[in-house]
Every structure is written in structure tokens, then in C-alpha cells.
Amino acid sequence: MKLLSIVIPIYNEEEILETEVKSIINEMNNRKFEKYEIFLVENGSTDNTKNIAKELSEDFQNIKMISLKTSNYGRAIKDGILRCNGDNVAIFNIDFWDVDFLITSINYLLSGESDIVLGSKVMSESEDTRSLLRRFITKNFNLFLKLFFDSGGVDTHGLKLFRKNIIINIVKKCITDRELFDTEFILRSQMGGLRIKEIPVICEEKRKSTTGVLARVPSTIIDIVRLFYNIKIKYE
């Protein structure tokens, strides 16, 4: 089996980082995963997250860690994809991960049925226990993407698995590097004809968001305008 990289952006996660990373390792080992790495991308944390991540990388051979100077979710994911070592790459959040998703998704990749697998929080079979506000935002954001970007309504934020070699050039083209980064590379993948499969997931809110949802609105609007111009009008 090819090496699997699990890229996890982390920011101010000192309360749950060690527990969640060790839980992922236990789950991976219980499911007999052998060739994998957990690639932690710390970005601008102001608490003890960086030190905890460094200690984990020293204690576990299959944990890698890099650190960025500023807080930037999209940049963390992008750098993780570009610098991780795996042939297949999964994107997890430290408070939202699912090894069952990996098992199902890998089968879709191996069968040749899809190039990218997304974990959807909005499918009828999914369970989303997050706050009403966050569910409302997700549902309406997906609707917005469907109307203005012809996305088909896919859930672009959340769990992902893909082959690195087919996504790498798309990732390098992305112009956004904040909250819209993973949305952009999924939209660009669709426009490039890649096969995308959505599967249901269970999404539980393990802790409140480390960055305020409403505080991200201005920068997200700016990036939406930039994105629309570049991939719908200019298309580059």
C-alpha cells in the first residue's frame, strides 16, 4: 500500500491536540494501517500548541510537524499538501477526523472510481451535531457555490482524500490562502474534469471554533470576489 499522509492544520489547540493525535494513532493502528504519517501544520498559535506538536513529532516516528509564522488555515493546508510525503493525502481537522472515512475513501481511489473523495456534512445520511449557526452557514455556502460556481452543491470544507500527483498542480494554481483555499482547489478540480465522490460523515463539535465564524466574513467575501473573477471570468 502506498504511503498515506494525513495533513492536519492546527492553531491554538493545546487543550485537545495531544489527546486527539493519540486517538488518531490508536484508530489507525487498530485498523491495521501501516504506511502513514500524520503531518501537523502549526500556524501562528499563541498558546502551547507548537511545543506540544513538536513533542509529539519527537515521540512518534510517523508524526511530522512544520510551523508557520502566522495564523492562516488555507496556507497551512496548502503547505501541508506540498510538503508532506504521501502518495495519497487526507485532510483532517484536529476536531473533525474519521478513520472510517479513510477506509471507504481509499477503496474508491483504488477502484479507480474517483480521484477525490469528500466527506459531506449535508448528505441525508450524514449526522451534523454542530451549532445551528454553523450548520446554517454550511448549507447556504454550499448553495451559493452551486448557484455561482456550478459546483453541484458539494461540501468543499471538511474531510478529503485524494491522489497527490493529480492535485498538486491545481493546488499550486490556487490564489486564495485563507478559509476559501480548500473550496478553491475543489472547484478547480471540478473544472479540470477530476472525478469527485461525496460520502456521508458524522460531524461532532468537540470544542468551539478557535477563530470566530463571523470574524472571518469580511476576508471570505473578498476571496469569493477574487475567486469568481479568476475562475469564472478570467479562468486561470
TrEMBL record:
InterPro entries found in the cross-reference section: Glyco_trans_2-like (IPR001173), Nucleotide-diphossugar_trans (IPR029044)
Pfam families hit by this protein: Glycos_transf_2
- What is the designated name of this protein? Glycosyltransferase 2-like domain-containing protein
**What's the superkingdom here?**
Bacteria
Which part of the chain is the Glycosyltransferase 2-like domain? 5-167
Q: What Gene3D superfamilies has UniProt attached to this entry?
A: Spore Coat Polysaccharide Biosynthesis Protein SpsA, Chain A (3.90.550.10)
Among SUPFAM superfamilies, the record links this protein to: Nucleotide-diphospho-sugar transferases
Name its GO BP terms in alphabetical order: protein N-linked glycosylation
Report the source organism.
Candidatus Falkowbacteria bacterium RIFOXYD2_FULL_34_120
